[in-house]
Write a structure and sequence with these properties.
The chain has 16 helices and 8 strands. With 339 residues, the protein is α/β, with parallel strands linked by helices. It folds into 2 domains: 46 residues, no CATH class; 289 residues, 3-Layer(aba) Sandwich (Rossmann fold), CATH 3.40.50. It holds the Pfam family Abhydrolase_1.
Length: 339
């Protein structure tokens, strides 16, 4: 009897100790893998499934939850520069459980095909996103489009180019405008150009201090992440830095840099603008520019919030988006009639 009890205790100890040791080992030696595992776990908890769709030989990777036959329009979420579909996890957490939501990896990011410069310009990304929309049948009825930063630039130009696909749109701190006031990030870029240090792009870190500086730029509220978590984030980014630089140089080229500015007057869908007042990447003064160009647009300025609205104020962002959709009262055919 004592032998059996001892065996049971030994098995129980192994069951408890092995996962703890494995977690500790991953945290110390492979923090990047642990971060990926954590995102997988969060997606599972939120009911998001990772899927793939194709347009010819071009592959898109996305996560989704729910079905498009619900009472509210589907949501398509476009992330920003050097992020991925997982940047939306904090926002999805606060969306209604029955809301159909689709988060796609933008061209070249994460699981979506990495091709060449033609796909990385803003118009190139707009074309690819439209292919994605068609590949999953999202355009069978008008949907609500959300884009942040670079994804906001793409979303705004998409709204101007394919108005019949949308019922409404939310732009969060979008790029692509003429900002009356330079942000800290833009001021630093101008200094780098003067000193011919174009390789030192603040949004493409290659060391832990540079990563901490990038996070400070993007977030008004300090994240205070453990050093190993920072190391994991850097480990996951570093292999992609060559692509990030190629993409960055493409979206700051003349044909892409002011894409939203040049197309915003063509936006006919109801527009919601969300911006953090303390944005150090793209100055909040751009919000007034966009609001003035699109009559009837709704502007929401978030106090004590920087550029990363989805990270700093996810509950607020989710509630604002759903309240805006509810306020429109669209039926499925109204947007197509309006366009």
């Amino acid at each position: 009897m004592d032998f059996r009890v001892g065996q049971t205790l030994m098995v129980a100890a192994v069951v408890v100790v092995v996962p703890v040791v494995a977690f500790g080992a991953f945290f110390m030696f492979w923090p990047g893998a642990l971060i990926k595992a954590y995102n997988w776990y969060v997606r599972r908890r939120l009911g998001l499934l990772v899927r793939y769709s194709y347009s010819g030989s071009y592959r898109f990777c996305y996560s989704s939850r729910g079905t498009p036959q619900g009472p509210t329009p589907s949501l398509l979420l476009l992330h920003g520069f050097s992020a991925s579909k997982d940047m939306w996890l904090p926002v999805v957490k606060h969306l209604p459980r029955d809301q159909h939501v689709v988060c796609v990896d933008m061209p070249g990011h994460e699981g979506t095909c990495r091709t060449g410069a033609n796909d990385y310009s803003i118009k190139g990304q707009v074309a690819r996103i439209h292919q994605f929309v068609q590949s999953i049948g999202l355009d069978r009825r008008p949907f609500h489009l959300v884009g942040t930063s670079m994804g906001g630039n793409v979303a705004g130009v998409y709204a101007a180019t394919y108005p019949s696909s949308l019922c409404s749109i939310t732009l969060m701190c979008p790029a692509g405008l003429i900002y009356p006031k330079d942000s800290e990030f833009v001021s630093r870029l101008k200094e780098l150009e003067k000193t011919q240090q174009e390789d030192s792009i603040p949004l493409i870190p290659s060391s832990l201090p540079q990563l901490e500086d990038m996070l400070r730029l993007c977030c008004h509220n300090p994240l205070n992440l453990p050093r190993q978590v920072l190391k994991g984030l850097l480990d996951n980014r570093m292999p992609n830095n060559g692509f990030y630089k190629e993409l960055f140089m493409e979206i700051v080229e003349e044909k892409s840099r002011l894409a939203l500015q040049e197309h915003m007057h063509l936006i006919t869908s109801p527009l919601q603008i969300i911006w953090g007042r303390e944005d150090r990447v793209l100055d909040v003064s751009g919000a007034a520019v966009l609001q003035a160009a699109v009559p009837g647009s709704r502007l929401e300025l978030l106090e004590h919030c920087g550029h990363s609205v989805s990270l700093e104020r996810p509950r607020k962002a989710a509630n604002l988006i759903m309240d805006f959709i509810a306020a429109q009262g669209f039926n499925t055919g109204e947007a197509k009639k309006r366009s």
